[in-house]
Amino acid sequence: DTGVSQDPRHKITKRGQNVTFRCDPISEHNRLYWYRQTLGQGPEFLTYFQNEAQLEKSRLLSDRFSAERPKGSFSTLEIQRTEQGDSAMYLCASSHRQGRDYGYTFGSGTRLTVV
Amino acid sequence: TQLLEQSPQFLSIQEGENLTVYCNSSSVFSSLQWYRQEPGEGPVLLVTVVTGGEVKKLKRLTFQFGDARKDSSLHITAAQPGDTGLYLCAGSNTGNQFYFGTGTSLTVIP
Q1: What SS3 class is residue A74?
Q2: What is the pLDDT of residues B31-79, one digit of tens each?
Q3: Are A48 and B89 in contact (CB under 8 A)?
Q4: Which residues of A are less than 8 Å from B98 in CB distance?
Q5: Which of A15, A25, A105, B76 has the lowest tally of Cβ within 10 angstroms?
């Protein structure tokens, strides 16, 4: 168990470009979450998967954002036509059951800078 | 929308001092969690509380969930420089997603 891995750690892109981030959760965890965190704020929920099914999406997740979790293992988050407001830390977390009694294990995040 | 308010927003204290940070909401949560986050890293879970009035201790850290399950506090005894970080509370009703507060940034000066 190597924890939750995110790749890349840092990404600088020009406005209008597409970017894709990857998250590898803890292998036995069936739930996977994406959060976004801007400077001085707590993480904001974007979406979550149970196995390969995307069960909930935040209104923050505009149509430029898409997330997938093929085969219920790793997940990708793609942002199309990036804007400067997309600059943030994108955090992935996983858990192995409904989160009432068990917290998330977070990855180290992908820091996105849109210039 | 941030449903959880944390106070203070910033706290700077000397090593050895005690401190308390607060997490308040107008909403009732079925569970509440506390995390600590260091710069450039993801949050790390410290504790989960699920019962109103529950108190949990983790070494020098004491966590309490309010009787009405709308608020929580974190008390640190004899703070050490290693306690420095951003403390986040997060509440959930469904367990499907947690709403995070804005955090308390703690600096412990040696």
Answers
A1: coil
A2: 899 999 999 899 999 999 989 999 999 999 999 999 999 999 999 999 9
A3: no
A4: 45, 99, 104
A5: A15
SS3 assignment, position A86? helix
Token pair recorded at residue A71: 């085969």
Distances from the Cα of A46 to the Cα of A49, B50, B61, B66, angstroms: 11, 24, 30, 28
Which site among B92, B100, B102, B105 would you substitute to test the A interface, given the most A Cβ atoms closer than 10 Å to its Cβ?
Answer: B100
Burial B17-43, CB ≥16 within 10 A → b, else e: eebebbbbbeeebebbbbbbbeeebbb
Work out how many CB contacts closer than 8 A connect A with B. 68
Give the 3-state DSSP-derived string for B90-108, with helices as H, strands as E and coil as C.
Answer: EEECCCCCCEECCCEEEEE
Q: What's the rounded Cα separation, in Å, for the pair A42 and A19? A: 23
Mutation target for A interface from B1, B2, B29, B97: give the one with most A CBs within 10 A.
Answer: B97
Give contacts of B103 with chain A, Cβ < 8 Å: 41-42
Q: Strands B5-7 and A19-24: what pairing?
A: unpaired
Q: In angstroms, what CA-CA distances link B32 with A83, A93, B38, B92? A: 34, 17, 20, 6
> pLDDT tens digits for A6-30?
999 999 999 999 999 999 999 888 8
CB contact under 8 A, A43 and B100: yes
Structure tokens belonging to residue A72: 């219920």
